[in-house]
Design a protein that fits this description.
Helix content: 10-25%
Oligomer: single chain
Strand order of the largest sheet: 6-5-4-3-2-1-14
Distance between the termini: 5 Å
CATH superfamily: Ribonuclease Z/Hydroxyacylglutathione hydrolase-like
CATH class: Alpha Beta
Number of helices: 7
Order of helices and strands: EHEEHEHEHEEEEEHEHEHEE
């Protein structure tokens, strides 16, 4: 199973559009791994995890043939993870020639957000957009094709109906856990019995917000999160782990993050980074 990071930033991106902070200033000068678009992923070649405002650029930059994608799995309804505008262009034959249905997996709030935008433009059903909505419920395993998903309730803005997921395919499992603080005991219990081959861990607060624990996590809490996975037996000590979803407000550029996490055996993701198990 291969997970490609299409974007590794929090909502404002890095450099943030209007920001004058030192992190953004350095990112503009250095370029490369310092440039972070909004967080999303490509799982193998058929599944997108989130579809935000940078989806068009990401599809071109990384050579993703969007018509060949089978499904989008959404973590929550915030604008940096769900862009209903670019889903509306699936309206066929008005804007595009679309015949292949696209499965959309997520909470019911995801579907409501998509249809609010579509409804304002006169579209009242998913069929017009060739979308197939499939609800995801916390703690309930589900399958779409050969991909198995375990949604878990995230510790994030409850109004966004947030989820994190364990993805399983071909005997391999990966946890994707961004946009969450420290998990509730209920979510930890559901996760404790799951054997993971790799994990992606939230780190919005980075170094300046290292102790963030509620809603988002910082670097210190990200390390503790990995330790909790290892101590529970879900994750082998040498299994690949990457941190992701960084805010410029965390006060750290890429090299700063690498120096912090290297002693803990954790990789720092960047746009285009690939995790393979």
């Amino acid at each position: 199973m291969k997970l490609k990071f299409l974007g590794t930033a929090a909502a404002e991106a890095i450099p943030a559009l209007w920001c004058e902070c030192e992190v953004c200033r350095k990112a503009k000068i250095r370029g490369g791994k310092e440039i972070r678009r909004r967080c999303s992923y490509l799982l193998d070649d058929d599944t997108l995890i989130d579809f935000g405002p940078d989806a068009y650029w990401q599809s071109i930059e990384f050579g993703i043939d969007l018509p060949s994608i089978d499904r989008i799995v959404f973590t929550h309804s915030h604008e940096d993870h769900l862009n209903p505008v670019d889903l509306f262009w699936r309206n066929s034959p008005c804007f595009s020639r679309v015949t292949k249905p696209l499965t959309v997996i997520g909470s019911r709030r995801i579907f409501g957000t998509i249809m609010v935008h579509a409804g304002a433009a006169g579209v009242s059903d998913f069929a017009t957009l060739h979308l197939r909505p499939v609800p995801a419920l916390p703690g309930e395993r589900m399958r779409d094709g050969d991909l198995e998903l375990l949604p878990l309730r995230a510790n994030h803005d409850p109004h966004s109906d947030p989820l994190i997921y364990v993805f399983t395919r071909g005997g391999k499992s990966v946890l994707v856990a961004n946009d969450t603080g420290w998990l509730s005991e209920e979510s930890w219990k559901l996760l404790d019995g799951v054997k993971l081959d790799a994990a992606v861990i939230e780190c919005t607060g980075a170094i300046q917000g290292a102790q963030w624990r509620d809603g988002h996590m910082g670097a210190e809490t990200s390390v503790a999160f990995r330790k909790r996975l290892v101590e529970s037996g879900s994750l082998a000590p040498d299994a690949p782990v990457a941190v992701n979803h960084f805010s410029h407000n965390g006060g750290a550029n890429h090299d700063d993050l690498v120096k912090y996490f290297a002693p803990h055996g954790i990789e720092v993701a960047w746009d285009g980074f690939t995790l393979e198990v």
